[in-house]
Amino acid sequence: MENAGSSIISALGAGSGVDFISLADELSDATYAFQRDTLNSRNETLEARISAASIIRSSLTDFASALGDRVRTGDLSPQGSVANPAVANAITAPGTTPSGSYSLEVTQLAQSQTLVMPSYSGQDDLVGEGTLNIRFGEVSGASFAEDTSQDALNITVEATDTLASLALKITSESNGELDAYVANGTNGAQLVIKGQDGAQSGFVLDGQSSASSPTPTPGDLSYLSWEPASDAGELRESSQDALFVLDTVQMSNANNTVTGLPEGMTLNLTSTNTGAPTTVSFETDLSAISEVMDDFVVSLNAVAAQLNEAAAPLGGLLGSDSGARNLRSDLRDLTTQTVMPTADEGEPSTLADLGLSLNTDGTFSLDTARLAETLATSPEGTAAMFTTGAFGVFGTMDKLARDNTLSSDPGSLGGSVARYETLMENNDDRLERVAQQQESLRERLTSSLISAEVRVAASQSTLSFLQQQIDAFNQS
Predict the structure, then answer these.
(1) N or C: which end of the chain has fewer CB within 10 A?
(2) 3-class SS of residue 107
(3) Weakly modelled stretches of the chain, pLDDT under 70
(4) How far apart (Å, rounded) are the C-alpha atoms in residues 268 and 452?
(5) pTM of this prediction?
(6) 179: Cβ–Cβ under 8 A, 6 or more apart, which residues?
(7) What is the 3-state secondary structure of 373-421?
(8) How many CA atoms does the CB half-sphere of 254 hold within 13 Å?
(9) DSSP H helical segments within 333-378, as ranges?
(10) pLDDT digits (tens, 9 = 90+) for 10-53
């Protein structure tokens, strides 16, 4: 049987001015074309299968991730509730699922020190040259205990500084620790200075005047000195810590936003309730579960639709794929699978208890009546199914998504992707060997055809010489 190479030689006619370089290329290419095309076709199919499996796997992972976000920090996360909302509000930290309840009694709110200094005729009055020293610590009655861990503030006051410009200097040079402004009231212009919340955020003023004979009068900086022992009504509010009792434990905090509490909760204290403790508790918003289950079914059907198309027995890219078959089986069992093995008898333990049902075409629907019944008869058990633990709705979907990313499991989509990638690598290796074999054949053909051409040319030269001799003989 004539092969592709001999057909080309017959068609071109060797020894008649043929381009042997091109001929060798065409012969070597034709010899290995079938193997090369077959391997490339297989790779195209493998790439399509990898893409289909990866898309389904990614959709499943995104689904589980979005559900986890809603459980941890979204509308399904436990929300803090204070029985007496006037006392405080409770906030949960992202990623925590507090479930306890706590007794809370607030006996004192944190507040800042406020000084209203003696009056001037106007805000443009000069305050006098010198240095205004401000030290921080605890003001208690007529005493002051300096907190040496806080740097004192030494403000240089120029001869041109007014009450208004001094207020700006105090605010800016304290880096936000103090807030100063001029209040124009019925008594004239007065410098108001406010500190930060907390007992250790009190402060005293020492106006060191540059005048040769300082006198505590307007225009001399010593007029703005203040300490609690000589207070004449300038102290309008004292700095103090927040004091509260949480589950009978006395606690304090420098401000009214209290962090570092059990189960990662934060309390924003807003009022006192001395002698009338209130309760802080955390619970899931049951009204959000119905909406979440609606979204759950939509997302689940999106994954099922991708899987049904890719794993169709006829024409599906993953029609014979073990990972796709196993995932389809897992989805079919999803409604009856026990996702809460720790649930007490009579409490919801399956997704069917939450209204999830399987249709004959492999898609899902939500039985709202079944869900409403479960919410009404077992609100706590229903809420327990929406946590970040190993069990429950999120735990089940998260495990399913993670299982299908495992490349070591041949029965998962991850294992299928790994298998197809290995086959592609093998095909690529074979393509490389085919290319090497084709190049080797091309070089051998080139050498052989050129040698044949040389021999043909020599024969033609001899024949031409003999023909000339015969022609000469015939003429003679």
Answers:
(1) N
(2) strand
(3) 1-18, 73-75, 77, 94-97, 453-461, 476
(4) 97
(5) 0.57
(6) 171, 193, 194, 195
(7) HHHHHCHHHHHHCCCCCCCCHHHHHHHHHHHCCCCCCCCCHHHHHHHHH
(8) 10
(9) 368-377
(10) 444 444 466 777 887 888 888 888 988 888 888 898 898 899 89
Neighbours of 190 (CB within 10 A): 19
Alpha-carbon separation of residue 327 from 304, 318, 371, 451 (angstroms): 9, 11, 25, 63
| One-letter identity of residue 43 | N
- Per DSSP, 344 falls in state P
**With 0-12 CB in 10 A as exposed, 13-18 as middle and 19+ as buried, what is 185?**
exposed
Helices of type H across 3-147:
4-12, 20-72
Half-sphere exposure of 470 (CA within 13 A, CB side): 6
Residue corresponding to tokens 């010198």: 130
DSSP state of 126: B
Q: Encode burial over 200-233: b for 16+ CB neighbours within 10 A, e otherwise.
A: bbbbbbbbebeeeebeeebebbbbbbbbbeeeee
CA distances from 239 to 133, 140, 141, 146, 152 (A): 19, 9, 11, 13, 17
DSSP for 215-242? Answer: -SSTTSGGGG-B-GGG-SS-EEE--B-E
Amino acid (1-letter code) at residue 409: D
HEC profile of 136-197: EEEEECCEEEECCCCCCEEEEECCCCEHHHHHHHHHHHCCCCCEEEEEEECCEEEEEEEEEE
Per-residue pLDDT tens for 301-319? Answer: 999 999 988 888 888 888 8
What's the CA gap between 255 and 201, in Å, rounded?
A: 10
CA distances 308 to 328, 335, 414, 472, 473, Å, are: 8, 18, 18, 88, 89
Sheet-wide strand order for 88-91: 88-91, 266-269, 257-258
How close are the terminal C-alpha atoms of the chain, in Å? 50
